[in-house]
Structure formats: structure tokens, C-alpha cells
Amino acid sequence: MTSAVSYELNESVATITMDDGKVNVLGPAMQSALNEALDSAEKDSAKAVVLTGNQRVFSGGFDLEVFGSGDPKAALAMLAGGFELSVRCLTFPAPVIMAATGPAIAMGGFLLLSGDHRVGSARTKCQAIEVKIGMTIPNAALEIMRMRLTPAAFHRGASLASTYVGDDAVIGGWLDALAEPADVLAEAQKAAAEAAQLHSKSHLATKLKARESALRAIRDGIDGLATEFSLG
Predict the structure, then answer these.
(1) Which of 66, 77, 175, 216 could disulfide-pair with 120, CB 3.0 to 4.6 Å?
(2) pTM for this entry
(3) DSSP conformation letters of 69-102
(4) Which domain of life is it from (predicted)?
């Protein structure tokens, strides 16, 4: 792991913290470090995982410098890596609890939606910002949104880049629970401790069945990224 990601195991709950000192961009280095931390959680047989950001933000999304580098292979790899990370969270053998300590924007929002339970606060701005900055939302991201958001929140969030905060974020499906900003991580860890009491094999088998069609659609989106964006 890099200094941008820390890992801590407390009893049966693993806490993974993103903190690059800025907005926790999900570039190649952050993706690699998060996967390494998830590897550690599996190796340690963690019964629940908390994924959190720093005190400023959960994640601002993909690294725009990679998109602007003029290297289509690097852009494709970053896109695929981000959505593979979402799939890993959606299919992780233990419950994954997201602690949205601040805004979750673009890929940061899609990663947030990939948790089994998501805790945020009034500071947690949730937004798929792509159409505001001249980008088209990838099919894989749309399928993640479609799976977790209400129909109204999905369509407004995707086509209008609508922002969801507070109760609206819970009602729309971006978040499951709210806490005071200073208490988000503690509340997420409390939820993780409760989730750690689940029968792990039944938990995994059930969520895989519940998400089967969505996971298939997300996988199709990942496999089609090069064609979708002519990045081969």
C-alpha cells in the first residue's frame, strides 16, 4: 500500500482509509493501493470492511490528468480499474460499509454506491458530474447507478448531474444513513461491527444472487469500454 491508503484491523473489522492529501482521486496508484488493502482484509479474514475518505472528501473521482494525457490505453486502464474496484466491493466476501466523510463525486460516487451500507452526513455531496464537464457516463457506471438509485434519482443524476445531499441522498438511494460529520466514521464502524455478526457465506451467496443481473450488466460495460469510447 502507498501512503495514500492506510489499513487497520480492529478485532474483526478492517478499516481502509483513502487520504492523498487532496481529493482522493481514483487514479492507478489509488486503485492499486485499495486493491492491496482489500487483499489484506481477505487475508486477515475480516468479517466486515469500512472504506472511508479523509476529513475533506470521500473521493473526487477519476484522475482527470490521466484523461488529459493523450494516452488512450492509460485512460482505458483507469476506467476499467475503477469499475473493477466497484465490482470487487459489490462481490466482496464480507460486508463493505462506506463512510462518506465528504463529497463523493463521479467515480467516487460510483464507488460509494458499491458498498453494502453507506453512511454520510450533510457534508456528503453525491453527484455524477460527467455531463457538466463534457463527459459521457460509461455504461458500467450507469448500471451501478441504476442498481442502487431510485428511478427518479437515477435519471436526474445521470442526465442532469443533479446533486444529492442529506435526506435527499438517502431518499434517492445514494446513502443509507446520516450522522454528524465528525461521527460518520464511528457510525460506519458501528454498522460494520453489527454486520460482522452475519453468517459470511450466506451474506455473500445472497448478495450475489440479488445483484446477479446488475453485475452482468456492469461486466458487459467494463468489457465494452474500449468500443464505447473508441479507446482500443
Answers:
(1) 175
(2) 0.96
(3) TT-HHHHHHHHHHHHHHHHHHHT-SS-EEEE--S
(4) Bacteria
CA–CA separation, 35 vs 85, rounded Å?
7
Q: Is 93 exposed, middle or buried (0-12, 13-18, 19+ CB in 10 A)?
A: middle
| Crossing angle of the two packed helices 72-90 and 139-148, in degrees rounded to 10 | 20
Distance in angstroms (rounded) separating the CA atoms of residues 172 and 157: 9
Distances in Å between the Cα of 127 and the Cα atoms of 88, 115, 162, 168, 212 are 21, 16, 6, 12, 25
User: Which domains, from first to last, does the chain contain?
Assistant: 5-184+196-228 (3.90.226.10)
Residue 203, amino acid? H
> CA 119, CA 169: separation in Å to the nearest integer?
11
Task: Answer yes or no: are the C-beta atoms of 145 and 154 closer than 8 Å.
Answer: yes
Cα dihedral 85→89→94→100 (10° resolution): 110
Question: CA-CA distance, 169 to 226, in Å (whole number)?
Answer: 32
Strand 13-18, strand 5-10: pairing: antiparallel
Distance separating alpha carbons of residues 179 and 123, to the nearest angstrom: 10
Taking only the tens of pLDDT, the chain with its 232 residues reads 568 999 999 999 999 999 999 999 999 999 999 999 999 999 999 999 999 999 999 999 999 999 888 899 999 999 999 999 999 999 999 999 999 999 999 999 999 999 999 999 999 999 999 999 999 999 999 999 999 999 999 999 999 999 999 999 999 999 999 999 999 999 999 999 999 999 999 999 999 999 999 999 999 999 999 999 885 5
CA gap 202, 146 in Å, rounded: 25
